[in-house]
Amino acid sequence: MFKMLLWCLCWKNCIQFHLNLQLRSVSWCVLSGAEERKCLDLAGNATALNIKGSLQCIRGLSARDCMDKIKNGTADAASMSADDIYAAGLCHGLDLAAGESHNRVDGISYYVVAMARRSSSDLSLLEMHELSSCHPGIRTTVGWTVPIGYLVNTSQISVGEQCNFPKAVGNFFGYSCVPGVKDPQHDPRGNNPRNLCEACIGDENDRHICANNHRERHYGEAGALRCVAENLGDVAFVKHTTIFDNVDGNNQESWALDLELEDLKLLCPDGTDADLDEYERCHLAAVPTNAVVVRVEDKCRVWKYLERLQNAFGNATVGFGLFSSAGYGASDLLFSDATHHLQRVLGRYTSWLGPSYTTMLQAFECEGKIPYAFTLDLLMAACVHCSCSHYRVLLMTGFC
């Protein structure tokens, strides 16, 4: 009897030891060799300073794989972008422990704006039917998710029972440039409307028209701005910073040399317009910064550990820097290089994403059915009534 009690006591102590060890450590899911090296360096530096707890680095194959690892307990945390945060919360039941603050502005990474030529005096975002549009690309937050979400939420377009977003967008605009919209990857059936490429120009030899890369000269945010500057589009959807990067001599390409701030304006969601520097009030969505995804029960534990790491390495001018990727051959490792500090997220993930951005994402849920051509990451978040594990197949078929 005594031996049995002694065995039980030892077994209980052994279990408690492993539980305590698990509580003291945080395993971080990383996505590249460079990120893994920085993670290991952080772990070593934290150990050298006797920071309470320990850091383990777990290699993930993708953001989706990291979500799975966090959900099943193989990993505890990972830094993710806004689109992935939405998918992690909706499809996996995960939450946030901390979020990045850039330039002392809490939670905002950039604003998605609608930009037009100032000479187009009769334009309104509430009356865009049969006008022309310029998008950085298919499957982009700036060029697709936010502007199309806005059009759905304002009842300007309806996707119908098939949830065919490209068809609805093609029927709405007169012509557009949406680079990549006709690629087999995004148009497996070859049915996406051709007018979504009619404002594209390809390269100097008129090849690669509508390509999802820089061979299409209207690709990307600078390309979308160029599309409007060259009078091939009425409105361009870009980040607010894109405009300032390409006007008043900041871009030396021929199309931008004479482009000035006063040549352009913002179109506001309420149908009015505004000057370019009024983006904080005149935007389609405020896209949140990256945040640390965790299991709900680990919000406090992971934050406490991150707080200790931030106190030690957050403002380092020499040695290891928590928010610096210098020396690793890549950028934005573990955290965005633009991060000023981490802040605790006390509410749910939706509070971090914010109402304007979340509303745009919800437009793609299409009453619980799978969208026809949705961003690969956000597709997971739309499978309200379907198995999220099949999202790659669903992307190709467009059906539950």
From TrEMBL:
<dbReference type="GO" id="GO:0005886">
    <property type="term" value="C:plasma membrane"/>
</dbReference>
<keyword id="KW-0732">Signal</keyword>
<feature type="domain" description="Transferrin-like">
    <location>
        <begin position="26"/>
        <end position="366"/>
    </location>
</feature>
<dbReference type="GO" id="GO:0005615">
    <property type="term" value="C:extracellular space"/>
</dbReference>
<dbReference type="GO" id="GO:0006826">
    <property type="term" value="P:iron ion transport"/>
</dbReference>
<dbReference type="InterPro" id="IPR001156">
    <property type="entry name" value="Transferrin-like_dom"/>
</dbReference>
<dbReference type="GO" id="GO:0055037">
    <property type="term" value="C:recycling endosome"/>
</dbReference>
<dbReference type="Pfam" id="PF00405">
    <property type="entry name" value="Transferrin"/>
</dbReference>
<dbReference type="GO" id="GO:0005769">
    <property type="term" value="C:early endosome"/>
</dbReference>
<protein>
    <recommendedName>
        <fullName>Serotransferrin</fullName>
    </recommendedName>
</protein>
<keyword id="KW-0964">Secreted</keyword>
<feature type="signal peptide">
    <location>
        <begin position="1"/>
        <end position="16"/>
    </location>
</feature>
<comment type="function">
    <text>Transferrins are iron binding transport proteins which can bind two Fe(3+) ions in association with the binding of an anion, usually bicarbonate.</text>
</comment>
